[in-house]
Every structure is written in structure tokens, then in C-alpha cells.
Design goal:
Cytidylate kinase; five-stranded parallel β-sheet; binds adenosine-5'-diphosphate; binds deoxycytidine diphosphate; alpha/beta; 48% helix; 229 residues; Rossmann fold
Length: 229
């Protein structure tokens, strides 16, 4: 701990859509007093910028430029993360299903990922960072002392999304949500650039049928174990 080059610790939480990454990352960051990185929000903001500019989502060069030029800022207001694109609040808009799928498509482009890499690493501030995404443990923070790979069955993840949307007053069929989840899983896992996969040193945690409090307890225990030396 006397090493002056020591970087702030990072807890990475990777996994597929609906596994609970965002929920657990937020609770964990609050509990530890760490900064929070929602890396998916960066890809979602890039996708929304591309959709607004009506860019062809197959045009890798133009999409890479969109990611390089991305004017996105994160603000924490009343304990909630706000995402601003060119100064405009896009927090709710980026959660729409068409943006989710576009984010997954845009995120498969190596140039887009390279353009967003340093921005993500810049979140590594004292006293520490909790980073949620797909490649936090494999590519962005490979030296993180604590890596979690959170999963749940596709059926359970679709049910969670349905409940989340119902609470917002949006009614979507479970069948459609399950199809969307499977399509995004396949796209995120099968791409060449930083595919969704557990890091070799990640602890896999299946949250199917496990409540949020219990998942948080297990992750906190892991943080204790990995950082108390
Ligand atoms: N362990 C869990 N058990 C039940 N519901 C959960 C659990 N973890 C998260 N949820 C709920 O599932 C939904 C999706 O969680 P979220 O954190 O957004 O997932 P992700 O960030 O992995 O896409 C939210 O409504 C959240 O409250
Ligand atoms: N580190 C990351 C984070 C997200 N992505 C891509 C792939 C995902 O399908 C989209 C959206 O990610 P996000 O974490 O916001 O999505 P979910 O909340 O898990 O549904 O972005 C990525 O490729 N790498």
C-alpha cells in the first residue's frame, strides 16, 4: 500500500442485460463511497447520437467519428445518474428498446470501442470505482482486484424487465422482451471486439431466484475478501 503508483481499486460488474448489474453497481458504489461508471450509458448515448444524425448503423467509419465527437456528460442529481448529450437530458430516452438494440449494434464496432476506452478509464478516481458493463473486467480494467460476472436465466431477466416497464406504465409482451434479450445476448457475446464473457479471474454469480439484498451481500463479501490484505 506504500506504492505511490497504486491506482484506485475497481470493482467490475459485467453480465447480460437484466442480470442486475446497474442495480447492484449503484448500491455497491453508495455503500463503498466509490464513483460509479455505467459504461452501457456511454454506448447508449453514442447510439442515440447516431440515430439522431440518421447515420447508417453499418457505417463503421462514420460511427467511429460519432463516438470520438460524443459530447456526453454524467451528473449525479439527488442520488440519480443523469446523462446529458450536448447538454440535453437523455436519461430516459436512452432506455428505450430501439436505443438498446442500436447500442448493442454500435458497440460491436472496434473503432467505437477504442474511441470510448479512455473516457471509461478516466472514471478511476479515489477512493475507488464500481464499473458496470460487458467488458469492464476483460478489457477496460483488466487489473481490477474484484471482478463479478452476474447472470440470470433469460426468462428471469425478461420477467424483471417486464416488471420494470410495468412500473413505468409501459406494457410490453413477455415474449417480445425475451426475444429482444436473446437477440442482444447473441450480438454482445458473438462480436469480435471485447465480447461479453467472464474474465478469467471473475467470480460468477447466478442471481436467478436470488433477491437484490442477497446479491449485494455476496458481492460485498467478495470485495472484503479481495481488498483486505
Ligand atoms: N437479484 C434480483 N432479483 C430480482 N430483481 C432484480 C434483481 N436484480 C435486479 N433486479 C431488477 O431487475 C431489473 C433490471 O435490473 P438492472 O440492474 O437494470 O439490470 P442490468 O443493469 O443488468 O440490465 C430492475 O428492475 C431491478 O430492480
Ligand atoms: N461495457 C459495455 C457496456 C455496454 N455495451 C453495449 C452492449 C449492450 O447491449 C448495450 C447497452 O448496455 P447496458 O449495460 O446499458 O444494457 P442493459 O442495462 O444491460 O440492458 O451497450 C458494451 O458493448 N460494452
Amino acid at each position: 500500500m506504500n506504492d505511490t503508483n497504486r491506482l484506485p481499486p475497481v470493482v467490475t460488474i459485467d453480465g447480460p442485460s437484466g442480470s442486475g448489474k446497474g442495480t447492484i453497481a449503484k448500491l455497491l458504489a453508495d455503500r463503498l463511497g466509490f464513483t460509479l461508471l455505467d459504461s452501457g450509458a456511454l454506448y447508449r448515448a453514442a447510439a442515440l447520437a447516431a440515430l439522431q444524425k440518421e447515420v447508417d448503423l453499418a457505417d463503421e467509419a462514420v460511427l467511429t467519428q460519432v463516438a470520438k465527437d460524443l459530447d456526453v456528460r454524467f451528473l449525479v442529481s439527488d442520488g440519480r445518474l443523469q446523462v446529458l448529450l450536448e447538454g440535453r437530458d437523455i436519461t430516459n430516452e436512452i432506455r428505450m428498446e430501439r436505443v438498446s438494440m442500436a447500442a448493442s449494434t454500435v458497440a460491436a464496432i472496434p473503432g467505437v470501442r477504442a474511441a470510448l476506452l479512455q473516457r471509461q478509464r478516466d472514471f478511476r478516481l479515489e477512493p475507488g470505482l464500481v464499473a458496470d458493463g460487458r467488458d469492464m473486467g476483460t478489457t477496460v480494467f483488466p487489473d481490477a482486484p474484484v471482478k463479478v460476472y452476474l447472470t440470470a436465466t433469460a426468462e428471469e431477466r425478461a420477467r424483471r424487465r417486464e416488471a420494470q416497464l410495468r412500473e413505468k406504465g409501459v406494457s410490453v409482451s413477455l415474449r417480445d422482451l425475451l426475444d429482444d434479450i436473446r437477440a442482444r445476448d447473441a450480438q454482445d457475446m458473438n462480436r469480435k471486439a471485447s465480447p461479453l464473457a467472464p474474465a478469467e479471474d471473475a467470480v460468477e454469480l447466478d442471481s436467478t431466484g436470488v433477491g437484490i439484498e442477497e446479491v449485494l451481500r455476496r458481492v460485498l463479501a467478495l470485495v472484503q475478501e479481495r481488498t483486505s490484505s
